[in-house]
Design brief:
Elements (H helix, E strand, L loop, with lengths): L2 E10 L11 E7 L10 E3 L12 E9 L6 E7 L8 E10 L2 E11 L2 E5 L11 H17 L35 H27 L31 H10 L7 E2 L11 H8 L5 H6 L3 E5 L1 H4 L20 E6 L5 E7 L8 E2 L5 H42 L5 H10 L2 H11 L6 H4 L5 H10 L8 H7 L12 H24 L3 H6 L1 H15 L16 H23 L2 H5 L21 H7 L3 H14 L20 H25 L21
Antiparallel strand pairs: 1-4, 1-6, 2-3, 2-5, 5-8, 6-7, 9-10, 10-11, 11-12, 12-13
Helix pairs in contact: 2-19, 7-8, 7-9, 7-11, 7-15, 7-16, 8-16, 13-16, 13-20
InterPro entries: LipOase, LipOase_C, LipOase_C_sf, LipOase_CS, PLAT/LH2_dom, PLAT/LH2_dom_sf
Organism: Clavelina lepadiformis (Light-bulb sea squirt)
Keywords: Dioxygenase, Lipid metabolism, Metal-binding, Oxidoreductase
Length: about 675
């Protein structure tokens, strides 16, 4: 049989120190129909170190002609000391003027099979490729297993199911951080730890006695490209209202349709604030009043105790009423710290100290709601089952896998750490916040529905979608702009591969994914799949699913995560816990305020956590960036170029608006929104 010359280009990863290998790399090229192959041959240059970090090695091999291979098999043999795993980015093969690209982007430990780069759904693949896909999925389900079903004594009880990895070190290699992420995270932890030690020493000499003294706890300049005047006017009604409206939990409030029975504010309480010729009832009916009610979210949640003591930390089940005034400003007009008790109802008409302390307690409730609900649960925790199942149920060549992977791969690493540093009962980060994280997460999961992650629906349901009634709501404007752009991108990619609803129904790998998420990831305990269907039956349903997962892992995570340092760096702006129970009307003094605020230890842990989590990685991939070539079809390249162009226009629109703002809203610039949850 005639032999032909194949040119083979092999790229070793540049982001993993252990990604190079001294093992022998063998490759087998398999024809399109699977009936012919070259047999394994070595890729090796005599007396040269091949497969080193970041290098592209080039080989020539004359062998049996099988055409451009449909599938390649890679096998490692003969490591110098036992197994020597290798992280291969890709292999490119040229035959004459033709070439094919094989995206690997995975660790090779023994043997793997990879199809060429064109994505495909299983029912439209050849018999041979379908068998290969099935074998790959079976291996993945073994390698990426669910944690055994938790019991009441386990941390994962009543929570979405996680990966079977108790700690970061237990993770499968594919989910561990690249070198640059690991170095960056360790650097930030080290910086803040040293700052905390220095600050504690200073506080021993000069204790915190005033608001300005809290600045001593935070001297590091943080270059996260956010506005430097974010906390300006923190103690004013306008400053507080601005942060509630456009802060790190902008979906926490709703338009007020009627006041809860346990919220005891009356028209007389706020008449002087609203002014003449109107009333509370009229302002509510006109859509100018908004409510942030934490009672349902916080009342059942356990409270923490001060580090290793029996001293409780306090966080009220607070209710806040906000009003859009004639200038379009969003202002607090009534705060109640104990539901049903008017002794704990405050308005701007109260004494300066009473009103300020009430705002501090309200912001403490906001902090707990933000950290455990909007941030940890609604992005990190809820995304894990969707991410795990994608790696379990899809082969590398599946279009949904290729679409989702840049947005889901990094999640498992930070979540594994969170289970020891945030959720574990004795962790310092947990103890620095008034509410118990595990208790909060279980409460939030109980009634959660998948459609809650659809922010456009939430904005409408919560009455936040009307710019005329609620002006200056920059989160709504920017998030919905990015929502529409991302949906357009996802729709084009999905429709390139799925031409009808029948294609969706017949995709058994997709159906396996939906079932795995719904029944093993979410409904593992009581059958409640929380609105996630165990079958996907239409193209629109598939677009909704992929779009929601991508948006939550990128845009929504960016807004609830990267503003933390700006928000929490100055503790009185938004305390993580209080040391005294809420005051009654007339009890507040400056001494009471300072005694209520966190002490130096709690404050420093809260600041350190916020600093570390808010740091952008120097080599981050942002919206529209795709360093790994999972897709190679020209049609997808064109779709991505259109996507990037629309994102660029959106960023320019946001920047132009911000030119006229005293407090620019920069958190959702597309070039500052990472693709995935990595911190």
């Amino acid at each position: 049989m005639d032999k032909v010359e194949y040119k083979i280009f092999v790229k070793t990863s540049s982001v993993y120190t252990g990604g190079s290998t001294d093992a022998t790399v063998n490759i087998n090229l398999i024809s399109k129909d699977g009936n012919a192959s070259t047999g394994y041959f070595k890729l090796d240059h005599f007396w040269r170190n091949d497969f080193e970090k970041g290098k592209v090695d080039k080989f020539k091999k004359k062998t049996k002609d099988v055409g451009l291979p449909e599938v390649i098999e890679i096998k490692l043999t003969g490591g110098i000391i036992g197994k020597d795993a290798w992280f291969c980015d890709y292999i490119e093969i040229k035959l004459g003027e033709s070439s094919a690209f094989y995206p690997v982007y995975d660790w090779v430990e023994d043997e793997i099979q990879v199809t060429h780069s064109s994505a495909s759904i299983p029912q439209k693949s050849s018999d041979y490729v379908r068998q290969m896909r099935q074998a790959e999925v079976e291996k993945h389900k073994h390698d990426y297993d669910w944690i055994p079903k938790p019991t009441p004594d386990d941390l994962g009880w009543n929570l979405p199911r996680s990966l079977n990895a108790a700690t970061y070190d237990d993770l499968p290699p594919i989910f561990k951080r690249p070198d640059y992420r690991e170095e960056h995270l360790n650097q930030k932890k080290s910086e803040r730890k040293m700052d905390a030690i220095i600050s504690l020493i200073k506080c021993k000499i000069f204790p915190v006695k005033t608001f300005d003294d809290f600045q001593k706890l935070n001297r590091r300049e943080f270059s996260d490209r956010q506005s430097t005047n974010y906390t300006e006017g923190w103690d004013t009604d306008e400053g507080m209202g601005r942060q509630v409206l456009n802060g790190i939990n902008p979906l926490a409030f709703s338009r007020c349709q009627e006041l809860p029975q346990y919220f005891n504010v009356t028209n007389e309480d706020v008449a002087a604030i609203l002014g003449p010729n109107t009333s509370l009832e009229k302002e509510i009916k006109a859509g100018k009043c908004y409510i942030l009610d934490t009672t349902e979210k916080l009342e059942p949640v356990e409270r923490n105790f001060y580090f290793d003591t029996d001293k409780p930390l306090y966080c009220p089940n607070a209710i806040g009423l906000f009003h859009v005034n004639s200038k379009g400003n969003f202002l607090p007009i009534a705060l109640q710290l104990v539901p049903g008790n008017r002794d704990y109802l405050f308005t701007p008409s109260d004494t300066k100290d009473d009103w300020l302390l009430a705002k501090l307690y309200f912001r403490t409730a906001e902090c707990s709601l933000h950290e455990w609900d909007a941030h940890l649960f609604c992005t990190h925790v809820i995304m894990e089952p969707f991410s795990i199942a994608a790696f379990r149920c899809f082969p590398r060549c599946h279009p949904v896998y290729k679409l989702l992977r840049p947005h889901i791969q990094t999640l498992m690493a930070i979540n594994a750490e969170d289970r020891t540093t945030l959720i574990a009962p004795g962790s310092p980060a947990n103890k620095a916040i008034a509410t118990v994280s595990a208790s909060a997460l279980r409460h939030y999961f109980k009634d959660m529905k998948f459609e809650d992650l659809n922010i456009v629906k939430r904005l409408k349901t919560q009455g936040l979608d009307n710019p005329k009634l609620l002006p200056k709501f920059h989160y709504r404007d920017d998030a919905t702009l990015l929502w529409d752009i991302m949906r357009n991108y996802v729709s084009k990619v999905i429709r390139h591969y799925y031409k009808s609803d029948v294609d969706v129904c017949d995709d058994y790998e997709l159906q396996d994914y939906a079932n795995d998420v719904a029944n093993n990831g979410l409904g593992w305990q009581d059958g409640n799949t929380h609105g996630m269907p165990d079958k996907i039956t239409t193209i629109e349903q598939l677009i909704d699913l992929c779009h929601t997962l991508m948006f939550t892992s990128s845009v929504q995570h960016a807004i609830v995560n990267f503003g933390q340092y700006e928000t929490y760096r100055f503790i009185p702006n938004c305390p993580s816990a209080m040391r005294l129970p809420p005051h009654k009307k007339g009890e507040a003094t400056m001494k009471r305020i300072m005694n209520s605020l966190p002490d130096e230890k709690v404050a420093l842990v809260a600041i350190a956590l916020a600093y570390t989590l808010s740091s952008f990685c120097p080599f981050e991939s942002y919206l529209g960036d795709y360093p790994e070539r999972h897709f190679t079809e020209p049609e997808i390249f064109k779709i991505r170029e259109e996507y990037r162009s629309e994102l660029k226009e959106a960023g320019e629109k946001m920047r132009k608006r911000n030119e006229g703002l005293e407090h620019p809203y920069t958190w959702l610039y597309p070039d500052r929104v990472p693709n995935s949850i990595s911190i």
